Amino acid sequence: MKVPELFDLEAHGAGWYPWAEISSCFWPGVGKKSTGVDPVLAQMVAAKGVYCIAWRATGKASPDNPTVQYIGQTSSFKFRMGQFAWSAGLWGARARGHSAGWRWHEQKEDQLSVAFFPLRNSNIPKHMLNGYLHWYEALALEAHHQRCSALPFVNVPQNGIVVLD
Description:
Elements: E1 17-18, H1 19-26, H2 34-37, E2 49-55, E3 68-74, H3 77-87, H4 99-103, E4 112-118, H5 126-148
């Protein structure tokens, strides 16, 4: 397996997905299936990779897009988006789950969009997966920094250390 030197993952499907579409697809309600809401977005429910959270997203879905406010990685997009929603107060009172959600403006979802960048190789050995995901997250952060001369607002380092969660 060759280690990438630049962020080379492609945005899934439509690129930017508004929060309302993610919420209705990932959590469609009792007796309903995600594939019945949006078959393309539903492919991300159990996928793993890097995600970018943007405010007023415009242009191509990419980590170096200036509208990106946070870059993260996960082994389950649905699980991580749920954690973010609870911590950001998108579903009621803030709750534990995602540090970026706590740094997000409470209940601000009207112009929130997310782009999902799934890993292409699903055969990554389990003992290497966490490191591989963090490496891709670091590449995404570097792409953003190269273009925007700063890290995404919600990824801002604490005490000089980038928070990768």
